[in-house]
Write a structure and sequence with these properties.
By secondary structure, the protein is mainly α. The chain has 20 helices and two strands. This is Major facilitator superfamily (MFS) profile domain-containing protein.
């Protein structure tokens, strides 16, 4: 009986060795999951050109979310030809956020089922088409409707692009590479948009095209999304993720071969698939079919509604809701806030303030919201400075994300961002507000580097995008509620000079 057991175990080892040695055709997940985890497979790959290309591609794709979020604030103060006023200027951001909230849940779940790359390609295609449509919107209502579709497509970039990139990064480099892709999205979304605002928006442009006037804000909308188009083109040449292929029982040799081809452009140290096979032949201490069965049951049992995933999801939902409400809720209105102060107004005791500008008007009246060329320049420069300062802090965050840890780095940045918001309200001075806007922009944008990395690492592969979708839904929902409060307030009278009896 003992010899029969040994013979049976040896047969299993021979079978597994035969599977691993077949470098053509039959190299798939079933031949490796018994003897290694997904992380060990990814860790065995060389860091090369492919890994730099994947985090750049992911960062450019994710930048679409940050780009539109930033340009909304500039559109509402420059799109004078489509009927924006004080009572309806909040519709654009609310429509965009509603689209994100719905798409985060739907597309996050679909990406876990159909694949991250496939959903990303479809979503970015829809996004780019809708950007062109928005640039030719003939009235504000059309722009608001298109913004909801853009938000729906944008949700995939926020919820999926990080999950897709994460699944190619070895553990020792995961924190820095994920930090780099988040920094790319944040820097392009903020720095590039504010720079283009300074270059394009102050210059008047009026070209009659049928029923619309093709003005500078339309050019701005198209030019700012060039990085997303570039990221989309790169994504077409990227493979599906290794982790997703393993979980879904797909062959991974084509993926490894594509990684080798991209890495070989600069340097070739041997095939990743060959190295993987050789490394696994040395680790073939197979624990039998019981190991295969237990791994399958474990994967099936790791559902999002079970512990510890449910607890993590609930706690992160609270963190995302609070951070998104303060960071993105203010980012979208930064151009309006800065322009308000440049017109000589303050948040406190506005009835005592006088206006040096003929365009000065009370924030809560139905007068036009467009600002002068000088004010657009001042607003763009102020926000641009904050985004320029984002770069050195991004480098510091990427360096510290492994040393300090994701959690503590995020907590530090959150407290600094909250302090700058509170100080902005208390000091209520144009010089102080300009300085604090720079501090807030610099710190709040970089808070996503540890938060996004930390969140992605807290969930397993087969529920990661679903979890990110739910977190984005909860975060955007808090922003929608905050904006609704602001929009509703526009319809109430101001009581500064009112006799309250």
């Amino acid at each position: 009986m003992g010899f029969e057991g040994l013979d049976s175990e040896q047969d299993k080892i021979n079978d597994k060795t035969a599977l691993l040695s077949e470098s053509e055709g039959n190299f798939n997940c079933e031949s490796i999951t018994s003897s290694s985890s997904v992380d060990e497979i990814v860790d065995s790959l060389d860091i090369g050109l492919f890994h730099y290309a994947i985090f750049i591609t992911s960062g450019l794709c994710h930048s679409g979310y940050n780009i539109f979020y930033n340009i909304v604030g500039f559109i509402v103060i420059t799109a004078c030809d489509i009927g924006i006023n004080q009572s309806n200027k909040g519709w654009l951001s609310i429509s965009f956020m509603v689209g994100i909230a719905v798409g985060s849940v739907v597309l996050g779940k679909l990406s876990d089922t159909l694949g991250r790359r496939k959903i990303l390609i479809i979503s970015i295609s829809v996004y780019l088409i809708m950007i062109v449509v928005a640039a030719f919107a003939y009235n504000y209502t059309m722009l608001v409707i298109v913004a909801s579709i853009i938000g729906f497509a944008d949700s995939a970039m926020a919820a999926i692009s990080g999950s897709y990139a994460l699944e190619f990064f070895p553990r020792p480099f995961r924190g820095k590479l994920l930090g780099c892709r988040t920094a790319i999205a944040v820097i392009i979304g903020g720095l590039y948009c504010s720079l283009m605002a300074l270059v394009i928006l102050p210059h008047p442009l009026h070209i009659k095209l049928g029923q619309i006037h093709f003005s500078s804000w339309r050019v701005y909308l198209l030019v700012t999304n060039i990085p997303v188009l570039f990221g989309f083109c790169l994504l077409l040449y990227m493979p599906n993720s290794i982790r997703f292929a393993i979980v879904n029982k797909d062959g991974i040799k084509p993926i490894l071969d594509k990684i080798d081809r991209i890495n070989s452009i600069c340097k070739r140290n041997g095939s990743s698939s060959e190295k993987l096979i050789k490394s696994r032949l040395g680790d073939i201490v197979i624990r039998g079919d019981e190991m295969d069965e237990s791994n399958t049951k474990k994967q099936k049992g790791e559902k999002l509604y079970q512990q510890p995933w449910l607890k993590r999801l609930l706690l992160l939902s609270a963190a995302w809701m609070g951070y998104c409400f303060s960071q993105e809720g203010l980012i979208v209105w930064l151009p309006t806030v800065v322009s308000y102060y440049t017109m000589g107004k303050r948040c406190w005791h506005t009835y005592n303030q006088t206006s040096p500008s003929p365009l000065n008007h009370h924030l809560y009246t139905n007068s036009p919201v467009c600002v002068s060329t000088e004010q657009i320049t001042s607003v763009s420069v102020n926000i641009l400075i904050g985004n320029v300062l984002t770069i050195p802090l991004s480098i510091a965050c990427i360096t510290l994300v492994n040393r300090v840890g994701r959690k503590w780095l995020f907590i530090i940045l959150v407290f600094v961002a909250v302090f700058s918001i509170a100080a902005m309200l208390i000091i209520d001075d144009i010089i102080a507000v300009r300085i604090l806007v720079c501090v807030f922009t610099m710190v709040a944008n970089n808070g996503w580097i540890p938060l996004a990395t930390w969140t992605l690492e807290l969930f397993p592969t087969h529920v990661r995008s679903t979890a990110m979708g739910i977190l984005n839904f909860s975060a955007i929902s808090s922003c929608i509620l905050g904006l609704l409060g602001g929009v509703v307030s526009l319809f109430l009278p101001d009581t500064s000079d009112m006799n309250i009896g």
